[in-house]
Structures
1.
Amino acid sequence: MRALFASSEVYPLAKTGGLADVSGALPAVLANLGVDMRLVMPGYTAALDAAEKKGKPIPIGDMLGTGDVRLVPARTPDTGLPLWLVDCPALYRRRGGLYGDADGRDWPDNALRFALFSHAVARLALGAAGNRWQPDLVHVNDWQLGLVPALLRSRPGVRTPCVLTIHNLAFQGVFPREIFGWLGLPEDRFTIAGAEFHGKVSFLKAGLVFADRLTTVSPRYAREIQTPQLGCGLDGLLRARAKDLVGILNGIDYVDWDSKDPMQLPFPYSARNLSGKHRCKAALQQELGLVADPGTPLIAFVGRLTEQKMADALPRIAAGMADRRAQLAILGEGDRSIEQALRTLDGRHAGHVAVRIGYEESFARRVLAGADIVAVPSRFEPCGLVQMYGMRYGTIPVVRCVGGLADTVIGREDDATASHCQATGFLFEEPTDAGLGNAIDRACRLYREPVAWRAMQIRAMKQDFRWQRSAKRYLDLYRTLSTDQEKSAAGLRECMRRRPTGLSPQSSTAQLEGEMSNTNTAEKDKISEFAYAIWEREGKPEGRDLDHWLAAERELQKRVSSEASVTVESAGAGAPAPKRAVATGSRRPKSKVG
């Protein structure tokens, strides 16, 4: 099986968050399971510098009027996977971040940057990039690749199937209506059953409509995004596509995150011998200027400083560290107002609070290894990796009971059960200062019970969040799509065999109905009815096309073989009309990526 994995960031080539970690680890595990896995990402300066074994660039022309674009073949430096870098210097070789400038402002041409990236990925998926390799399916991630499924749908006949993974529904790539004309999409894609969202263009919504399968990064988040509370205005569409949506929990790389590796930590340790962790804590306290006291619980926050992560509560939580006889270490960057509020804490709470604005991978590991507790108090969290990294390092997580946090941390809400023999951390429900503060207090109390604390550390370190289990679920999904593609190809070949001379591959179902003389009338009528029901159920803007005819043939054959008597009305029963599928919810999404 050949699969193309497309992402706007891949660790260690370029990273802003968990998307890069997933994009670096998951393809490598799938490759070990036998998939011919290849990566594609934008040719950022850092990525071009870090990639290994770069080959001769492949010109793919001037797409969207941006000048000549090239594909640079290379290998990832850590796993050695084949990689293509989409090289367009005007769009990707910039000082600043991947998605914005040094001051945190989005690049004003992000729509163009990622529309071009999507076109390059679509060409690779269709085998039209001059690289002599074509995938059986393409796996794209987040809003930056949302146009790829729509571009693939524009090709007549059998399509390359596409999986879209939602890493954070809050970031949707929403841009003004005026840009649609130069995105390279058919005009009929700008409808309520396409990329249109409240009069604007949504890259993510286009992907949600046209991808063959949708995944997200934890089972609980897959359920949450189908509700008005966390659906960000797309809950209706996601409910309509519920049968194609699955939550697959993210994993972490246990080789890359290994507390026993002296190359990663200054003082290695294991679940059997935690003495190295105590030395990591002492070194971290000294490095951060905190009071060197092994008996004081040290709490860490490592992540983006945004309201989603409840980072706005940190200045208020920090004020109570002295009263708790605890310490707080904060590492991250994000919202400028939160950064400014945190910068004032160092001097105000000297010895108890330390703040480092920015992000550096090796320092983040030292913080997680040296801390006793890691706080991940997100208001919503698709999956979260920090709590898994913390448990791997024997650092107990305090998390809100939401999304992937609830899927990965075993805990209870009261002191009596928090030290239960299965617990690996502390949960709280309400996203408030009081909720977070109470959970931290419970963790600090248990910390002062050494036997119970050590038992919880050992349980946490023994949790298994390796990628292998999740990768096998992705592989099963890939195989399903590959099988469906083979059936579609077989059906198309049969249609072409029976098709009268001169009938084009783009022929509509209506033409097929009238001109396929080898199909008997009863069968033709039934297939036509099913095709129309499928069109209504899926809300396809292109109408009753060949894809739906083929899908109807398969569905009819399946129902006949199971001796089920199904009417057209039952085939479309419960299917929401396209307008209802996207109208639920009033929250307007942000286009910023974090």
2.
Amino acid sequence: MSLLVRTLFEAFGPSTLREFRRQCATPTDTQQKLLIQLLSKNSDTEYGRLHGFADISGIRDFQRRVPIVGYEDLQPYVEKAMSGEARQLTLRQPVFYAVTSGTTGASKYIPVTPESRTVKSKLTRVWLSAVFRDHPGIFGGRILQIASPEVEGKTASGVPFGAESGHAYRNMPSTMKRMYSVPYETYEIKDYEAKYYLLLRLAAGDSISAIASVNPSSVLLLAKRLAGHTEHILRDIRDGTLRTDLDFDPSIRRKLERGLRPDPTRASKLEQAARKTGGKLLPKGAWPDMEIIACWKGGTVGQYLEQFDDFYPTGVATRDLGYLSSENRGSVPLTDEGDSGVLAIATNFYEFFPEDVSGPPKGTDLLTAAELEVGRRYFIYVTTLGGLYRYDMNDIVEVTGHYEDTPLIRFVQKGKGVVSFTGEKLYETQVLTATGKAFAGVAQKPELIAAVGEMHGDLPRYLFLVEFDAPPGESEGTELVGRLERALRESNIEYAAKRDSMRIGPPVLRVVGSGEFDAYRKRMVEQGRSDGQFKVLRLTSDASFAREFSSVCDYTVDS
């Protein structure tokens, strides 16, 4: 089967990339053509009639007639569509609703139509074609991907809703599906520990050439779980079995067991690899020929990427999956370098507003792709075939260059990832820069969970929730929080000014219990959060977040 997939990409990959390049040579024409087709297709809908889609002749006309919106503005139309009322946002009814909570708040239901699903699939083919061009060995083994259950429930009209990662996994072409090491049913297992064990037990029995997970924390979680389950995995591979103490649906167990056979040769090979790493099986030993890891590389995930070399084969490539969410797939990285991707101008219509301009934008203030400047940061707004129109993503992206005449963008942070009590405007990126400096070379390997802005008495302060391999002693903790304070001052001059004027209290380094973040992640997944796209803001003003973690001790600096 890998030979068939390889042959298909050899035959059609180059033409797929040529067509994408052609579209990127004329971004304004490509975007205008897409917009008019999208509006014309959906003109006879409740939303389309309200805003005169049929009479819109171009981009500026669209900006004058159609308002900028958030989810709460579209929610009444979504709810009517979910109850079965036709032609609310799109001519064709959604076939699925992707459930997302964003970073906080109640669930949002993002409609997925046949058209929006098709264009996302085409964009995935562009991404894969570029990966295959650079790493032809990607189809030499199987692919291990992290996904979440497709179906969490159904609407009143019978349309399923759940995680889009599961929806895409379940609906991929059968030719590609056979390239994956884990059958979809594995992702439906509710028990967190059982699911991860089974993912790894099945994958360890295979040669894995690629791992895909939007969040690199999941890539690290796989590596650590593999090491922790070494003994059981080796035994199961040798005997062709699954652990009997795992709690999951018997029908799924029967299906998985039908595909298993005893493999003492593979088990012996893995055992030899484990002996080289202290008796713990690591991905570098299990899958030494791995070609690539596909995950997010930008925004707030840098500390995870830095740990890949501890677990994965030396020199394995890492490619960004692009600017990607339940609402849209917004970019296509074409190389392994950095975290930038080509704006997906043939898939969605995009508008932008400069991040450094104060005040809310008016409809005609938004810029098109052709008007962006390299080096500047922008809030991004998207119009999709799924029924989002001028939708505020609350995301900040940076323009890093061009591919042909189309901008290259990288995700910087959520717009909400900024806290400002007294005008300091502390950003997630500044927090990550500061913690990176403060924690560099520290033997206890501190990992930031999040910085929480909170009121302490009558002064605001920043509380840093940090997990360590081994808790620091008092002198080390005091030294660390001092280094953190100095790095924060260097990262943000307004923070330094507010600290000097005593309008912000001293930072606190809170040492949380070992394994606390993993336990929190498990709780959230069990409560319905998407495992594949699990994320937390690394900077938040939600003081209740800190109460999710048990404290070992606090360290601070003199006021």
3.
Amino acid sequence: MSNPIKLRSSQWFSGREELAFQNRSALRSMGLNPDDFLGKPVIGIANSFSELNNCNGNLRDVAEAIKRGVLMEGGLPLEFPTISLGEEFMKPSAMLYRNLMAMDVEETLRANPIDGVVLVCNCDKTTPAQLMAAASADLPAIQINGGPRAIGRWRGTSVGSGTDLWKYSDELRAGRLSLDEWHEIEAAYGCGVGACNTMGTASTMTSLSEALGMMLPGTASIPATDSRRLQAATATGRRIVQLVREDLRPSQIMTADAFDNAIRTLLALGGSTNAIVHLIAMAGRRGIKIPLSRFDELSRTTPFLVNLMPSGRHLMDAFDTAGGVPAVLAEIRSLLHLQSVTVTGRTLGENIARARSFDRDVIAHQDQPLLAGGALAILTGNLAPLGAVIKVAAASPKLMQHVGRAVVFRNYEEMLARIDSPDLPVDPSSVLVLQNAGPKGVPGFPEWGSIPVPKKLLQEGITDLVRISDSRMSGTAFGTVVLHIAPEAAAGGLLGLVEEGDLIELNVASRRLQLQVDEATLSRRKQAWQSPATRHLRGYPKLYIDHVLQADEGCDFDFLRPDSIAAVDFVEPLVGRS
């Protein structure tokens, strides 16, 4: 380069001689000569591989391919492990630890001689956690995922991970599926490493990373076992070295316009409601405030185009073959900020100039959408003064305007104990209400909002009814489910005052969620209300309860979300004696 940039890592290796001696010696002890690293960009590889996370099981191979690309481009790759957030094993929710993982990655970048970073993700929360860290650290960064898993088949039928779990578990509870058949489906369901092969949260978030400009075009949907996955990793390794030399940073990519592009993509995908919380948190790290109303505003004019489970019928292999994220972006190009810069160094418009859909049954034409607009809707009203979310694309049209009497569960344990009781006072017009399942209430904001249809209704052939909570639901789930009610019950929200038999109105067209109880009665209930006691008196859960923001603000920690642009700046460490 004619004007090479000053590498951040040179503070460690070419600074004060007694300190540089120590740091160079450390790399020598790892088998590296000074010629292997002096003057070369040091590339951190933030690997979220873990044997406790089946979705990320192939990330060791992905990391090796990244290293190959970094070396080919003249950089020094140094891999480091991070917390790995797996949806299956982590309880009560991987969401409890998203902010911790973001802190883990950010502080590792801050404290070490790293010039640029490759963020290696896959399972739901790993993607936003890494992007939150990258937004805060603002070192050159690029992301790559491990890809969706293969498609399992049961008795000739494809099994969609996540979505078919909910469908077949209802069949088992209703007595229409035997235990032997259930175990057969289990074997097909666990068909290999990789993220869910539906448009659940994992594939939604990696697709949005690509739409945001933080991932190479066309890479989000490549299957985990496809050789193109490792080819993409090598290309990503090469590109991060170039990003360091070009000094292209997340602050130039993760702009307000880019987040609008990501929201539009979410809506066209019919993607996970969880993405709303994550996008708000990611933008907040750059001092960009996205009100919930922005999602609703863009939803009204963005066509829903992608026919994938849980909102449609296909799986991720079909999405990739049909053209993946670039094809979706090409369909909605007239709605996008095409001048947004991406990790390619080119604009979004340049990246998608030749993209198109190769299968209109999977990625529909913008003039023939699955839904003209409104895949997601933001509700307000006295039950949700700060907002609530419903995924219209996966709900029952007949329930979009509904008034019913509440069946109330004070917490998740009570719901599990009562939901299949033959004495449950429920009918198809009822509204199931789950309280104290929000960010502070559990803590961790788990995916408990998709309350099961009561067994007595399943046996009558009822497959959906209105359900509301301050919780989340899996991106693979479906039904008429209102989520993320803010403020949550445990924070004093009106949701915590709902009692059995109260009338609740849902009107999606009017964007209203209303508790039909008079003010005098609510005032008496409020005076008697007490904040639920918590068992978490120490450690990280206590920190979470004390500092987590509500759902409408992304559930980041208050002390990690800057209150001004000046506060966004990444504070470099003082490089001295350890």
